[in-house]
């Protein structure tokens, strides 16, 4: 039962599973508005940490980028100190898993999506020229985008761009998992079922899918400069700079019906995991993507509403 750690694929599948055949009014981005009092530069070396506490437990929350350079370097001194004697390390809830019962349906839906191309044949001349230039730079042929579905083409282009640019959704969580296991600290992860839900792509109105494709094409043309700068800001505790990261595809997916449902589920699950860690005296470490962590109605606001104390990276 393979697990895929790709934020954009997880978002795509979970948000499209309830998509109707006809287009609906776009929903606002649930992570667009931040809680400004929580966006604070860290006072300690390395990335910024938030703390959630009750009478006898502290959960150290490390806000992490949703996309970053592979093998990104960062000062781990604070993390390694907090890892010692930690009760648990909770990784970001961004995995998808194909269950055995759904694997056949997943394969069928994938084959239906990957047919009818090449995709560039559906584009106007100006956009086709831009797309051909980008895919050529990425080392891909027209056949690689063998679909007439603009959303499927956008997903594939985003994956190819991020792979060639050495960007990943796995770091720093991959390193944190390894270090926790080396120190024999319990690691908690959560996977969401992929199953046959790729069929949701087939039900996406072409006009909505084209918006997402155009977002990805523009990002691939611009290159990874913004993401690299944001990653450097993250590594030095500059939360505001880290939030400047590219999220074009993530943002466009939030306009699709079902976006609120998925967003609610992952935030609720993450807040529940932190609340569960607070039941055991001592301390724990939890990694959460920055925007869901700091957004209005995000993970930290939910925990404050439950009566837990939340401290920012600027507090002692």
Account of the 3D structure:
With 316 residues, the chain is an alpha/beta fold. It is built from 14 helices and eleven strands. It has helices spanning 7-16, 77-83, 103-113, 125-137, 150-164, 173-182, 199-202, 206-222, 225-235, 239-242, 248-253, 259-277, 290-294, 299-305; strands at residues 3-4, 49-53, 57-64, 68-69, 89-90, 95-97, 167-168, 187-188, 191-193, 282-289, 309-311. The radius of gyration is 20 Å and the shape is elongated. Mean pLDDT is 83; it is low at 1-26 and 100-108.
Beta percentage is 5-15%
The count of domains is: 1
Computed over alpha carbons, the radius of gyration is 20 Å
The number of helical runs is 14
Query: How are the strands ordered across the major sheet?
Result: 8-5-10-3-2-11
Would you spell out the secondary-structure blueprint of this structure?
Layout: E1 3-4, H1 7-16, E2 49-53, E3 57-64, E4 68-69, H2 77-83, E5 89-90, E6 95-97, H3 103-113, H4 125-137, H5 150-164, E7 167-168, H6 173-182, E8 187-188, E9 191-193, H7 199-202, H8 206-222, H9 225-235, H10 239-242, H11 248-253, H12 259-277, E10 282-289, H13 290-294, H14 299-305, E11 309-311
Parallel strand pairs: 3-10, 5-8, 5-10, 6-9
Antiparallel strand pairs: 1-6, 2-3, 2-11, 4-7
